[in-house]
Amino acid sequence: MRTTIRISEQLYRNAKARAATTGQTVSEVIEDALREALRPKASEPASVASLPTFGGSGVLAGIDLTDSGALRDAMDDGAGLDALR
C-alpha cells in the first residue's frame, strides 16, 4: 500500500541511515518501527499492596471468630464489647 506521511527531516535522515546500515529500504525501517510501536505491551504484574497491621493482644475474650452469627451480633451491639474487655 502506498501512502504519504509527514515526518521531520531529521527523523527521515535517521530512518534513511538505519536503512543503509541494515540493508533495508526506508519503507521497511518505517514499517518495523510502526510494528514495534503498535505491538501490545506485556502487562506488568500487579503490585502487592501493603496492608496495615495493628498491635494488640488478639481477639477479645468471649469472641469466637468461627461463629459468624455471634461475631455479627457482637459487632452490632457495640455496647457489649466494653463488657468483654
Helices, strands, pairings?
Elements: H1 9-22, H2 26-38, H3 68-77, H4 79-84
Characterise this structure:
It is a single chain. By secondary structure, the protein is mainly alpha-helical. It has a domain of 30 residues. The chain is built from 4 helices and no strands. The protein starts with 8 loop residues before the first helix and ends with a helix.
The biggest beta sheet reads: none
Q: Which word captures the global form?
A: rod-shaped
Structure class: mainly alpha
Mean pLDDT: 86
Share of β-strand residues? under 5%
Number of contiguous helices? 4
N-end to C-end Cα span: 79 Å
Using DSSP, what is the number of strands? 0
> Helix coverage percent of residues?
40-55%
Quaternary structure of the protein: single chain
Helix-strand pattern, N to C?
HHHH
Q: Radius of gyration, Cα only, in angstroms?
A: 33 Å
Q: Which ranges are low-confidence, i.e. pLDDT below 50, for 5 or more consecutive residues?
A: none
Brief sketch in words of this structure:
With 85 residues, this protein is mostly helical.
Task: Describe the structure using short key phrases.
single chain, 85 residues, mainly alpha, 4 helices
